[in-house]
Amino acid sequence: MMEALRTVINYITGLYTLPWILIGFLVTILLSKFIKEQKIDIAMKKIGLILLYFFIPVLLFRIFLNTDFGLNEIKFAIVASIVIIIMYLLAYFFSIYKIKKLNLNDTLKQDFKKTVLTNQGRSAAFIGGALLASPWQVEAAIFIALVGVALFAIIPWILSYMHRKETKKSIENIHALPWYLRLYPWYLILFAIIAIVLHNITGVKMADFGDIGVVITFYSAITIPAALYYVGAGIHPSDLKISEIKKLFSLNHNIKSNEHWPWIRNIFLLTVIITPLFISAFFGILFILGLISSAWLAVIIINTFLPITSTNMLLVPYGINKKVTALSVTWTTIICVPVVVLLITLFEIFLP
After folding, report:
1. 159/226 Cα distance (integer angstroms)
2. Which of 137, 188, 225, 304 is geometrically suited to a Cys-Cys bond with 20, CB 3.0 to 4.6 A?
3. CB atoms within 10 A of CB 281
């Protein structure tokens, strides 16, 4: 039995996990012929929560239990935090610059600013989770934990502050996120801390648990193909309309600035082009100068190319634009997933 599990593990790790995105997409097309799209979406949201709470934390625990978490990992955690801060600062200043260009009224100015800032948040746990099956899994796990804190703790607090400032009601405090998502980043980090402390004190690794260790490794390894299947299943064929693609890439400047497509194009420009290129150029230079490792470079660059996370939809009560956010999530997923798959493949080949 254990030998069978060990054999299967080899086929649900590394580059073998990437085709699960396509499998998820194709299965969704098949199911949509028999089941309403809305029911599929409801089921996938439940599956997403199961992955978030019962699979990803166990995978992080296993990775950190097998890691000597020392000075190098602490340095990367600091650098990753700086990268995340830079990404959100880029979004903030980009929104201020674009507000002037779009000639928005006072109400739309704040909505645009909050929508752009929120949609700099990326899908680190699901699509970025593919990195947990890569040679840079430790760095990827650190990045995922830090992104979780930003998405579910810091950004909601900033949006709540902005909302109170707008409404001038200092006592008003919105909690748009359900309690279990506000708890999630700390829940995730707890698994990492327990694994790090346990390993540093006892020196134990997953292999030391024998057959139980094999079962836990298999269980946690399922996370990656399951998460990538979830991503593929979230891409609906109905979204792939030529008319919508034309609107996304339209160069027509006569469209009214208060319509949603100019907003989506600007968010797309920020998340898919400006942010990845800026971060890649800066850290690419550091890598050439020998100041950072290939693992740091790979994880940082790939995380900046990740699509926008669908959990941003939960932040709509803070005043972000619902339609803009939904379409931005859809189109960055469609465009960025193939790019991320290509980058992972290239980095594994040329920067192992």
Report:
1. 31
2. 225
3. 10
pLDDT for position 138: 92
Exposed, middle or buried: residue 290 (CB in 10 Å: 0-12, 13-18, 19+)? exposed
> Running DSSP on this structure, what letter comes out for residue 315?
G
| Segment 222-241, tens digit of pLDDT | 888 888 888 777 776 666 66
- Residue among 230, 336, 262, 347 at smallest CA distance from 298: 347
pTM of the model: 0.83
Express each pLDDT in 101-124 by its tens digit. Answer: 888 877 788 889 999 999 999 988
* Backbone torsions φ then ψ of 35, nearest 5 degrees: -125, 140
Residue 261 token pair? 């497509």
Size (the chain), residues: 352
Which domains are seen in the chain, by residue range? 2-350 (1.20.1530)
CB atoms within 10 A of CB 249: 10
Distance CA 110, CA 229 (A): 36
Q: Is residue 351 classed as helix, strand or coil in its secondary structure?
A: coil
Task: Please give the structure tokens belonging to residue 189.
Answer: 């980090």
Please name the amino acid found at residue 66.
N
Give the span between the Cα atoms of 247 and 244, in whole angstroms: 5
C-alpha closest to that of 113 among 134, 128, 91: 91
The 8-class DSSP code of residue 11 comes to T
Pick from 75, 83, 82, 23: nearest CA to 231: 23
Question: Is the pLDDT score of 214 beyond 70?
Answer: yes
Residue with tokens 């340095």: 75
Do the beta carbons of residue 29 and residue 20 sit within 8 Å?
no
Beta-carbon count within 10 A of 125 CB: 26
Using alpha carbons, select from 129, 143, 78, 83 the residue that is nearest to residue 275: 83
Interval 153-185: pLDDT, tens: 888 888 888 877 766 654 455 556 777 878 888
Which is nearest to 297 in space by CA: 263, 264, 346?
A: 346
Say which residues have a Cβ less than 8 Å from residue 149's Cβ, sequence separation at least 6: 185, 189
Rounded Cα gap, residues 330 and 232, in angstroms: 11
